[in-house]
Amino acid sequence: MGDSAHRVALVTGGSRGIGRATVLALARDGHDVAFCYRSDDEAARAVEKEAAQGAGTATGTRVDVTDAAAVRAWVTATEDRWGHIDAAVTAAGITRDNPLVLMEDEQWRQVIDTNLDGVYHVCRAVVFGMMKRRAGAIVNLSSVAGVYGHGTQTNYSASKAGIIGFSRALAKEAGRAGIRVNAVAPGFIETDMVAAMNDKARKEALSSIPLRRMGTAEEVADLVAYLVSDRAAYITGAVLQIDGGITI
Ligand code: NAP
């Protein structure tokens, strides 16, 4: 299974939201996709079924991205199965919002462990195989909160800013090996992550978005699918905002 026309992608957090839409977009484009999730088996099986309607396939595995050994084992199993990994997309992420004055150590740790250490674990595990093949595309999900900061989200903003620094550094380091690394920074996207917003916060958010709506997971997934494709062969180290203009 080592032919270069055969595209293999790895996606974290693929059972729901942006990760799920990315799995489906990449399967639609002909990738065999290995995705992971933390707990929702039922959602993962539904994604596998839906992906089977595309040109590729999707296989979900329960892997906690905070667990370096589990991530390594999952990446190795994927390489053993398909021969190589062309693309890695890190979409697993959580929020634990609180003003800093009330922030609990556990809230800080969980967000950094999942959002930032999780990206490190995945990229650390895939980069060697990509270097050996002198090809690969990585897309890490950051956030506009990582670019501009967001009140009550010091933990989340720090993790997402960390992802930007990490992605740019890796783009510089691995470019000569033919590996591209980009970050995508969404604004408000209609997923479970923003479903918890109360009506007042939602209204306020909508009024500050020039396009007057939240984005969809599919819109973000299309950008990710473009970035991992050869059509984006000269794009690396970029931080692409997809936010309806909220940061203008
Ligand atoms: P979501 O709907 O809450 O889905 C999160 C996904 O990540 C789920 O599949 C979940 O699996 C998985 N996950 C969480 N913790 C994990 C862990 N420790 N190990 C493995 N998988 C884990 O999130 P989303 O809104 O699609 O967000 C996706 C990414 O985009 C995140 O990095 C987020 O920060 C970023 N983002 C989102 C927005 C937005 O407005 N939605 C804006 C900017 C950036 P289980 O269901 O099994 O737990």
Overall pLDDT confidence: 96
Which sequence of SSEs, written as H and E, runs from N to C?
EHEHEHEHEHHEHHHE
List ligands, each type once.
NADP nicotinamide-adenine-dinucleotide phosphate
Give helix % range.
Answer: 40-55%
Instruction: Please work out how many helical segments DSSP would assign.
Output: 9
Low-confidence stretches: none
Largest sheet: 7 strands, parallel
Enumerate the strands of the largest sheet in spatial order, edge to edge or round the barrel: 3-2-1-4-5-6-7
Which strand-content bin applies to the residues? Answer: 15-25%
Topology:
Blueprint: E1 8-12, H1 17-28, E2 32-37, H2 41-51, E3 57-62, H3 68-82, E4 87-90, H4 105-133, E5 136-141, H5 144-148, H6 154-174, E6 179-186, H7 192-195, H8 199-207, H9 217-228, E7 239-242
Parallel strand pairs: 1-2, 1-4, 2-3, 4-5, 5-6, 6-7
Structure, briefly:
The protein is 48% helix and 16% strand. The chain contains nine helices and seven strands. The chain has a seven-stranded parallel beta sheet with strand order 3-2-1-4-5-6-7, sandwiched between helices.
Q: What features would you describe in this structure?
A:
It is built from nine helices and seven strands. It is α/β, with parallel strands linked by helices and 248 residues long. Strands 3-2-1-4-5-6-7 form a seven-stranded parallel β-sheet, with helices on both faces. Strand 4, helix 4 (105-133) and strand 5 (136-141) form a beta-alpha-beta unit. The termini are far apart. Bound molecules: NADP nicotinamide-adenine-dinucleotide phosphate. NADP nicotinamide-adenine-dinucleotide phosphate is lined by residues 12-13, 15-19, 36-40, 64-66, 91-94, 114, 141, 143, 186, 188-189, 191-194, 217.
